[in-house]
Specification:
The chain has 469 residues and is of the alpha/beta class. It is built from 13 helices and 21 strands. Helix 7 (215-227) links the parallel strand 9 and strand 10. It folds into 3 domains: 2-148 and 275-335, FAD/NAD(P)-binding domain, CATH 3.50.50.60; 161-272, FAD/NAD(P)-binding domain (3-Layer(bba) Sandwich); 349-460, Enolase-like, domain 1 (2-Layer Sandwich). One of its GO terms (molecular function) is dihydrolipoyl dehydrogenase (NADH) activity.
């Protein structure tokens, strides 16, 4: 078996692994990155990017249907699902090709195959063709991501019982779609197909949709789903299904309090979360700490075995692509001998429902749990001229600040372009901004971003375009 030596081996070429390898290459480190499937991982291939392409298409489709209110006559709009999927596939191909090019340009060697850690400083790599070699290295980065969770009674068949991977690749719009799990993935994809004409039913085991999200924000999304015909069951569990003679599925649901129902649908999307990929890489044998499947690491990205690092979904919550990327970059800096740490104030989160939800920092409830007296500012999109002009007035911007000092603690948005607006909030938190900093900053008019300024002013009692407390 051939042996060679490098500075670092990165296992997994997703949004944590490939930025780590690229940065290592930029820092003149000799690096090998191993990926068993396609570069880009879940995010580029069947997660973030494909789902957002479909979300964008469904939003455009809905806008054309309501264009008559603007005086625009749009007739015979229909969905060509095959063309839609081909378009989405083209985006994915372009991005994964770009990643491959960036790895090559930065002298990060990509090996398509599998990796097993055989020692604190050795990795055995098996290529797709079956060739094996041992790599000796100063550092090993575990960036193996996560996998969709299956649940009892709903084994994936790739056709009618599906996960997110198949959910972004459907070549036929389900007439009746049942989503098990009212979290991020379930509501994002459920919204897509509802806009395209599916009858949507959501079964969520907890008391609220989008568990962990500020209920004020979630309520806006839930209202719109229900307004467009969705049936939502909370505190409910899907128990199993039977196949009807016509090919449809009869799903048995426990509604709680001794009540049961049977929901007939054509497709079931199981979206109950993701499980970290930590098994089968040799970590347990080396004594690397595993916690509920995760491979925890410290502020430098190191596991309890100093030469082994972990980044991204496998390292722990939150399972977000941008968190993985930043961790990968930090670890690369440390391996190359530079000073770096995971020392950010906040990791913003975005949910691409309709309307979008975006958060950064502490929620009102979290601040109060820490014993902080808070000052809340809130500004509705319905009071913004730009929101009216684009016919998207649902939702609001909410800021949470320390009542005494006025320092910003959190920003929470539900509404149009929340995903883009939250970056101002994240920057403000990193800079330890105060309500006055945001409220006194001139925001251009007419824009959606004015809502951030007005929300800060409302927190101070100075808002111009709504009543103050």
């Amino acid at each position: 078996m051939a042996t060679r030596t490098v500075d670092a081996v990165v296992i997994g070429a997703g949004t944590g692994g490939y930025p780590c390898a690229i940065r290592l290459g930029q820092l003149k480190q000799k690096v090998i990155i191993v990926e068993k499937d396609e570069v880009g991982g879940v995010c580029l291939n069947w997660g973030c990017i494909p789902s957002k392409a479909l979300i964008s298409a469904s939003h455009t489709y809905e806008k054309t249907q309501g264009a008559s209110a603007m005086g625009l006559v749009v007739e015979n709009v229909r969905v060509d699902v095959n063309k839609l999927q081909d378009w989405k596939g083209g985006i994915v191909k372009k991005l994964t090709g770009g990643v491959r090019s960036l790895l090559k340009t930065n002298n990060a060697e990509l090996i398509t195959g599998t990796a097993r850690i055989t020692g604190p400083n050795t990795v055995e790599v098996t290529t797709r063709e079956g060739q094996k070699e041992t790599i000796e290295t100063r550092a090993i980065v575990v960036a193996t991501g996560a996998t969709t969770i299956e649940i009892p009674g709903f084994k994936f068949d790739g056709k009618q019982i599906i996960g997110a991977k198949e959910g972004v690749s459907l070549r036929e719009i389900p007439k009746r779609l049942l989503v098990i799990g009212g979290g991020v993935i379930g509501l994002e994809l459920g919204t897509v197909y509802q806009k395209f004409g599916s009858e949507l039913t959501v079964v969520e085991a907890t008391p609220t949709l989008l568990p962990g999200t500020d209920p004020d924000l979630t309520a806006v999304v839930e209202r719109k789903l229900v307004k467009h015909g969705a049936k939502i069951f909370k505190n409910a569990k899907a128990l199993g299904y039977e196949r009807n003679k016509d090919g449809s599925l009869a799903v048995k649901v426990d509604l709680g309090e001794g009540k049961h129902d049977t929901i007939v649908c054509d497709t079931v999307l199981v979206a109950v979360g993701m499980r970290p990929n930590s098994a089968g890489f040799g970590l347990e044998e080396l004594g690397v700490k595993i916690d509920r499947g995760f491979v925890p690491s410290d502020l430098s990205g190191r596991t309890n075995v100093p030469s082994i690092y972990s980044v991204g979904d496998v390292a722990g919550q939150p399972m977000l692509a941008h968190k993985a990327t930043k961790e990968g970059e930090v670890v690369a800096e440390i391996i190359a001998g530079h000073k770096a740490a995971k020392d950010w104030v906040s990791i913003p989160g975005v949910i691409f429902t309709d309307p979008e939800i975006a958060t950064a920092g502490l929620s009102e409830a979290q601040a109060k749990e820490r014993g902080i007296d808070v000052r809340i500012g809130k500004f509705p999109f319905s009071a913004l001229g730009r929101a009216m002009a684009v016919m998207e007035t649902d939702g609001f911007i909410k800021v949470v600040a320390d009542k005494k000092t006025h320092e910003l603690l959190g920003v929470h948005i539900v509404g149009p372009e929340a995903s883009n607006l939250i970056s101002e909030g994240a920057l403000a938190l990193e800079m330890h901004a105060f309500l006055e900093d945001i409220g006194l900053t001139i925001h251009p008019h007419p824009t959606l971003g004015e809502g951030m300024m007005e929300a800060a002013q409302h927190g101070l009692g100075h808002a111009i375009h709504i009543m103050n407390k």
